[in-house]
Write a sequence for this structure.
């Protein structure tokens, strides 16, 4: 029996201390350091004799290493494959985080049920009957999926040796515990040790492992920060539970880019892939309404057309309100100051409310011009034409600044039927055969003159 050792961990950032103290010196949080029992003992976590290591430990010269691209396993879900960079890499460990009830378990169970290979879905939160009820709602005809309800890693590896699945799903990593560590499930040391065992299993057997992780109230994945460093890919499942749309993006990806994102629609029978996200982000009102403008933005490598709604009204309580949904409120204040100082629009005594439809958050500065157009449209109570869109950044001097990959934005606007797009006069456009009218503007006054005469 190994000697039992007591250690102190910060529950917020995972920093280890030799003794208890009130404040964590790393993250500066108070009362987050707790005592945990740590027991180190060499034990076999799974039947290693039946799984020979798939990777050689022999050192090789750089030119001797096989440069062929890694074969990927198609998940059957185009949006997930896009975010992962082409599919699931054998031997990889992927961590999926998101708000409670956002659809993490539904997404991975849906993928597991539609894979043509043998898979094992391990749940430490739900019973097998609960999982079967959800599986019948999503895809009742799959016979390749095995379901196990277990929280001890030693028992999980015994079942893995018997079933020999080609992919393993863990729901969730915070519910697992190992005999190596004598602390409660979900503690810093348990999460770190269980993840280490799963990573070792994945690398030595070349079996991909997908983990579901809880998040904290701040939106970060619960557990030590080292958890995100240990895994190969970190995915974030975002969206408002009051909206039906979900966004999947990669925060870390060792096998591809983190620029792409996937969009899903939550339905009664699971998550539906949204192949044309611009359709869901633009309302289908037949009449033109003031205070709305369409912007051509990019989320990673994917062009999107989003609708921006603004409401400008007289401040009845003396102090003007500034409220944003899906947009940075500080940037809105900056744009309103530019309109006030550089263009002469008196908005200092008016309430301004801004909303980006679809429940998404956008950080792309190319939507600045559309924000200004929506604010001016609401202020003047004159509608912006439904066939007009915008793609430009606004500077502090009131100038219209160019944005990257403007050709891609123009093509997306033309594909969706827009007749005019306003861009910066400093953008270099290489498109030759295009039907959409490209209007170049240099100042806010040019935009106001074009839209409202």
């Amino acid at each position: 029996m190994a000697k039992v050792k007591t250690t102190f961990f910060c529950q917020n950032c995972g920093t280890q201390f030799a003794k208890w103290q009130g404040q964590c010196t790393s993250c500066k949080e108070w009362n987050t350091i707790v005592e945990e029992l740590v027991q180190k003992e060499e034990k076999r976590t799974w039947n290693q004799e039946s799984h020979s290591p798939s990777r050689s430990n022999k050192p090789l010269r750089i030119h001797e290493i096989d440069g062929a691209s890694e074969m990927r396993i198609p998940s059957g879900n185009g949006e997930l494959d896009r975010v992962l960079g082409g599919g699931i890499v054998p031997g990889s460990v992927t961590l999926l985080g998101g708000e409670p009830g956002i659809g993490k378990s539904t997404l991975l169970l849906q993928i597991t049920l539609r894979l043509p290979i043998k898979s094992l879905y391990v749940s430490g939160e739900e019973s097998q009957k609960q999982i079967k009820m959800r599986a019948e709602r999503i895809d009742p005809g799959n016979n390749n999926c095995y379901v196990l309800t277990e929280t001890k890693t030693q028992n999980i590896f015994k079942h893995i040796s018997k079933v020999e699945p080609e992919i393993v799903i863990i729901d969730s990593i915070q519910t697992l515990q190992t005999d190596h560590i004598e602390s409660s499930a979900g503690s810093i040391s348990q999460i770190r040790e269980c993840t280490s065992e799963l990573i070792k299993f994945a690398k030595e057997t070349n079996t991909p492992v997908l983990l579901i992780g809880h998040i904290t109230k701040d939106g970060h994945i619960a557990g030590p920060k080292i958890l995100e460093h240990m895994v190969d890919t970190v995915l974030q499942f975002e969206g408002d539970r009051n909206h039906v749309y979900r966004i999947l993006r990669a925060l870390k990806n060792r096998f591809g880019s983190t620029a792409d994102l996937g969009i899903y629609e939550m339905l009664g029978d699971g998550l539906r892939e949204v192949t044309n996200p611009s359709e869901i982000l633009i309302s289908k009102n037949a009449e033109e309404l003031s205070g709305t403008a369409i912007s051509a933005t990019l989320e990673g490598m994917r062009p999107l057309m989003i609708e921006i709604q603004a409401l400008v009204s007289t401040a009845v309580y003396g102090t003007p309100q500034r409220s944003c949904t899906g947009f940075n409120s500080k940037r809105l204040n900056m744009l309103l100051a530019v309109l006030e100082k550089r263009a002469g629009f008196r908005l200092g005594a008016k309430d301004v409310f801004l909303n980006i439809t679809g429940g998404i958050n956008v950080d792309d500065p190319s939507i600045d011009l559309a924000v200004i157009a929506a604010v001016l449209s609401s202020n003047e109570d004159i509608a912006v034409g439904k066939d007009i869109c915008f793609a430009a950044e606004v500077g502090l001097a009131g100038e219209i600044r160019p944005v990257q990959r403007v050709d891609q934005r123009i093509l997306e606007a033309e594909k969706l039927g827009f007749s005019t797009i306003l861009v910066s006069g400093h953008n270099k456009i290489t498109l030759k055969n295009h039907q959409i009218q490209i209007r170049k503007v240099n100042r806010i006054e040019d935009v106001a003159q074009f839209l409202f005469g």
The radius of gyration is 26 Å. The chain has eleven helices and 21 strands.
